[in-house]
Amino acid sequence: MNIFRVPFRMERLAPNSMAGEFDAGYLANLTATVKSITDAGSHAVLDPHNYGRYNGEIISTTSDFQTFWKNVAGKFVSNELVIFDTSQCPNPLVASVGLLLTKSWTDNEYHDMDQDLVLKLNQAAIDGIRGAGAKSQYIFVEGNSYTGAWTWTKVNDNLKALTDPQDKIVYEMHQYLDSDGSGTSETCVSTTIGKERVTDATQWLKDNKKVGVIGEFAGGVNDNCKTAITGMLDYMGDNSEVWLGALWWAAGPWWSDYIFSMEPSSGPAYTGMLSTLEPYLE
């Protein structure tokens, strides 16, 4: 495993205002978490898990969002193993296990938002990150409708207009395999649903000369889901020119008995799914 997602709350990092000063204690904990990951040679994805909201309200001020990301990037500008995720969902400092299929985030899971605003917020985050002098790091951008791969071409086509002077944008999509794609059930729709739900997004990436990553995926510990997951990962591997990898959701000591927990040594996915995923690990 060579990539770990580090979700945090924007309000805890910047408690007074989105463009305001950072809380020193929270920043220290976040920095220490990132350092422990990157010192081991892995990538750390900085993921404000806010769903496009700040203090419960949809973020509408792109200038403040740009400043927030400029401030964040400034703290990690020299760490090439940091990845910035410009999207947003709430889980403070809990790491998600990552799997990369090949050698190589803005806010988490925008939803129910104006599509043009989602485009502008992503671009503002990119501009803020690069404006801080962070030139070498990848930037993961997310879309509306919980950034689902299965709805990407119908909802997020306009995000192809995003620009980055460093040409290091990675389109992050999420894909769960239950009936509504929410990742709240251990039941997968079919043994082929994994591949089916990323096929259109794969073609979109190819058509637009973009690259992507599945930033969240999971399935229940059962034969149907195992087959569906390996089918999806095999298909992504066959299309590795546009897919850089996939990250299992989730891991961390606070997840207790969460159905998809990859937390050693007793998480349900750790005990029941890891052996299925190991052939895809680098």
Description of the structure:
This protein has 282 residues and is α/β, with parallel strands linked by helices. It has one domain: Glycosidases (TIM Barrel), CATH 3.20.20.80. It contains nine helices and twelve strands. Strands 1-2-5-9-10-11-12-7 form an eight-stranded mixed beta barrel, surrounded by four helices. Strand 9, helix 5 and strand 10 form a beta-alpha-beta unit. Helix 3 packs parallel to helix 4. The chain is globular.
The pLDDT mean sits at: 92
Measure the end-to-end span. 6 Å
Largest sheet: 8 strands, mixed, barrel
Radius of gyration: 17 Å
Function: Has endoglucanase activity on substrates containing beta-1,4 glycosidic bonds, like in carboxymethylcellulose (CMC), hydroxyethylcellulose (HEC) and beta-glucan. Involved in the degradation of complex natural cellulosic substrates.
Domain Glycoside hydrolase family: 1-251
EC number: 3.2.1.4
Keywords: Carbohydrate metabolism, Cellulose degradation, Glycoprotein, Glycosidase, Hydrolase, Polysaccharide degradation, Secreted, Signal
Gist of the model:
By secondary structure, this protein is α/β, with parallel strands linked by helices.
Main features:
8-stranded mixed beta barrel, 33% helix, TIM Barrel, two-stranded antiparallel sheet, 282 residues
